[in-house]
Amino acid sequence: MDTGGAGYREVKTVTNHDRQPQGEPGGDRLLPGSASLAVLLIVFIILSLLTLFSIMRGGTGHVASDAGGTKAFSPIDFPEIDFDRELMPEVADGGAADAEGTYLVRQSLAYEDYFPCTDCHAEMEVNRERRQLEEMHDDIELNHGPADRWCFDCHNPDDRDSLRLANGTLIGFDESYRLCGQCHGTIFRDWREGIHGRREGYWNGAKSYLLCAHCHNPHAPHFQAIEPLPPPVRPQFLRATAEEVHDE
Amino acid sequence: MSDADRDRANQGDGFERSVDRRALLISTGLTAMAAVSASVAGASTGFVERLLRTRFTELSPERKAEILADLEREYSERYARTVTVADTPPMDGVEFAYGLDIARCVGCRRCVYACVHENNQSRDPQIHWIRVLRMEKERGIELAESTAYYEPELVPEPDAFYLPVACQQCRNPACVKVCPVKATWQEPDGIVVIDSDWCIGCRCCMSACPYGARHFNWTEPTIPSAELNPDTHYLGNRPRPKGIVEKCTFCIHRTRKGRYPACVEICPVGARKFGNLLDETSEMRYLMREKRVFVLKEELNTRPRFYYFYAT
Questions:
Q1: Of B176, B267, B186, B256, which Cα lies nearest the Cα of B214?
Q2: Is residue A49 left, alpha or beta, with left meaning phi > 0 and alpha meaning psi from -120 to 50?
């Protein structure tokens, strides 16, 4: 695992020929002068005093003042994150006894704001031209695969409430994974086996899973960067916070 | 006075003195014990009694139930809410294993805080069972060069990848071997557990663990009552006292009832996998069959149940 560890360190061998004669030949000063000794001694004393002071002060090591890990955070500091994660009622009911496993999809996709699409599109004439969308859906930025990707590669122009596979099969939005699986076959297989994507519930029973579009925006599927939660407290600051607790 | 008399007197003196000393020792000892037990008992009901019992695995079911009820009463009182302490046994034919996809992990630390929330770790001084290490893509897995204190605006950073490390639930656990009082052991389902009533806080296990997975309660842990998870297990997330060691238990209170661990469910990228190694259809078996899998510090022969893998 640790590939870089076994280093091929250069070993310098010193042969007798390389060795310089020590001291002046015939000279009586084999040791450095007392002045340089005194300087060395002073430097040594200063360094050891500095170390001693930093140890006594409970030194914070080489931590920059703006580096992470100086303050302790707790889950309650992040109310925007749901740490309790209630199960879907169907999954909770199924429980561990559900040996076959109930597989349910959490339905909370963004398209719910628009769905059903036919509310608007039933009355509209189909415009198959590639163009910049202006009046509606102008927030959609296509960044998915080849540049010539267009709406009707996936959406069904004749009935907008369904999606269309490459072979013409019409599917519902709740089966969108079949559409994604046309190109992303290996990931689709992993997802089906529970390796790609998240599952919640019972490892030996009912569980809920997510569709591709829950995590990946189908129009620009690259996973968006998120804000990390703060780092742990460094040991040297841990003690300080504990002492504060005791002072209270 | 003859020599013989003097000898007898001396002997008598010596005898009396030794009696005095013994009495003194006994009385001071008793006083000290009484004082200690009084103060300890004052701190938590039934604590002294639990100190005098036999080890948890050797208790009769009735005695176990009594102890659990005691604990429930104690915690409910301390946190002013209903706390349950279960001792759910391992399931037959189940051996847990954990998978973590380091090609997916973005290092967001949601798992770290979900774990604290679920397992009642001390908020201050802070204890985290999961530590996410940031490493350079260019250098690969280089533990010595990694940092846990990264703090960028957004993750993942383009030049880094992340390796969360918690207890590896080894099949050959060094921590269990070194424990002088057998307060930590491996359960039949593979979870290495700690009996925090039995732990003496010597921290030998912490120095034995090559993964830094064990953590010590240097002071009395603080958990605000409102933040306590009241669903606890005796060998897992029940509130711990000061001076004992704690670590990840694969969320023993959840997984023994069939639930996924909390870190699996919170992971926003679904990098965390959990399942039964003995079930051929489980997620764990699939990933071990199909993916490139490795364990941390394989050369130490700890044989972890925690597998890192690359899904791509």
A1: B176
A2: alpha
User: Left, alpha or beta for A115 (phi > 0: left; psi -120 to 50: alpha)?
Assistant: beta
CB B105 within 8 Å of CB B163: yes
Residue A28 DSSP symbol: S
**Separation CA B192–CA B178 (nearest Å):** 13
Angle (CA) A148-A151-A152 rounded to 5° is: 95
B125 prior amide bond cis, ω within 30: yes
Task: Give the model's confidence band at A50: pLDDT under 50 very low, under 70 low, under 90 confident, else very high.
Answer: confident
Per-residue pLDDT of A77-86, as tens digits, reads: 999 999 998 8
Question: Residue B14 pLDDT more than 50?
Answer: no
Model confidence at A210: pLDDT above 90: no
Cross-strand pairs, A199: A209
Mean pLDDT of chain B: 88
Tell me which chain A residue has its CA closest to the CA of residue B226.
A76
Q: Helix (H, G, I), strand (E, B), or coil: what is residue A17?
A: coil
**Residue in B149, B156, B298 nearest the CB of A69:** B149
Q: Which residues of B touch A195 (CB under 8 A)?
A: 99, 101, 273, 283, 286-287, 290-291, 311
Identify the weakest region by mean pLDDT among A194-198, A212-216, B80-84: A212-216
Q: What is the pLDDT of residues B23-50, one digit of tens each?
A: 666 666 666 666 655 555 445 556 666 6
- Burial letters B19-41, b for 16+ CB under 10 A, else e: eeeeeeeeeeeeeeeeeeeeeee
Q: If you measure CA to CA, which chain B residue comes closest to A243?
A: B125
Question: What pTM was computed for the model?
Answer: 0.78
ipTM score of complex: 0.81
**CATH of span B96-310:** 3.30.70.20
List the one residue out of B168, B164, B165 whose CA is nearest residue B305.
Answer: B168
Indicate yes or no: CB of A72 within 8 angstroms of CB of B126: yes
What are the sequence ranges of the domains in chain B? Answer: 1-43, 96-310
Q: Output B79 or B54, whichever has higher pLDDT.
A: B79
> Confidence class of residue A65 from pLDDT cuts 50, 70 and 90?
low
B10 pLDDT above the threshold of 70? no
Q: Are B209 and B194 in contact, with CB atoms under 8 Å apart?
A: no
- Whether A194 sits inside 8 A of B128 (CB atoms) is no
Domain boundaries, chain A: 110-117+140-237
Write down the mean pLDDT value for chain A.
Answer: 79
Q: Please report the DSSP string for B137-196 in residue order.
A: TTT-S-GGG-BS----SSBS-TTEEEEEE-----SS-HHHHH-TT--EEE-TTS-EEE-T
